[in-house]
Amino acid sequence: MKNAQSHKHNTARMTLIDPVTPPKSHDSCMVCGLNQSLGLQFRPSGENAVAATIQASSQWQGYAGVVHGGMVSTLLDAAMTHCLFQQGVEAMTASLKVRFFEPVPCTEQLEITATLTRQRRHVYFLNAELTSAGQPLAIAEASFIRAKK
To answer: How many Å apart are CA 149 and CA 147, to the nearest integer?
Structure first.
C-alpha cells in the first residue's frame, strides 16, 4: 500500500516539472510526435525514471473493451525510450519482454512509468510498468542499443 501512495504522490508532483523533450528524430513518432500522435508526454520522476498518464481509448481495443496487447507494449516501450531521452540518449529497442497481469480496460486512466536500471557500454536496460488506480496491469523489461549517428 505504501508504494501506491508514494506513486500517487509522485504523479501529482510531476505535473510541476517540464516534460522530457524528445529529439527531432522523434517528430513523427506515433506516440509522442508533433502531428497525429497520441500526444503522450513523459515527465522526470527521479534521476533515472519517467512517468506519464493517459486516458485509454476505445480506438486502441483488440477484444471488446480491452486495450490491444500491441498498444500496451507500445506504451511501455515509449516510456522506456523517454527514460533514455531524459538521460540524453537516443537508442533503439533491441529486446522487449512484456508480462500482462490483467486486461487493460479502454475506459481507464493509465499511469506509465519507466526506470533505467543499468548500462553496459552502448546497451541500456530498463523496466516499465503500466497501472490503473495503482493496480499493476502490465510490466516490461527491455534492452536498448544506442542509435548510430
So the answer is: 6
Nearest C-alpha neighbor of 134 from the set 18, 41, 12: 12
Nearest to 52 by CA among 22, 82, 30, 74: 82
Is the CB of residue 69 less than 8 Å from the CB of residue 62? yes
CATH superfamily of domain region 2-146? Hotdog Thioesterase (3.10.129.10)
- Tens digit of pLDDT for each residue in 49-78? 999 999 999 999 999 999 999 999 999 999
Closest listed residue to residue 138, CA positions, set 84, 68, 86: 68
Q: What is the pLDDT of residues 94-143, one digit of tens each?
A: 999 999 999 999 999 999 999 999 999 999 999 999 999 999 999 999 99
Query: Where exactly are the structural domains of the chain?
Result: 2-146
pTM here?
0.85
Cα distance between the two ends of the chain: 44
Residue 95 to residue 17: CA distance in whole angstroms? 30
41: β partners = none
Distance CA 81, CA 44 (A): 13
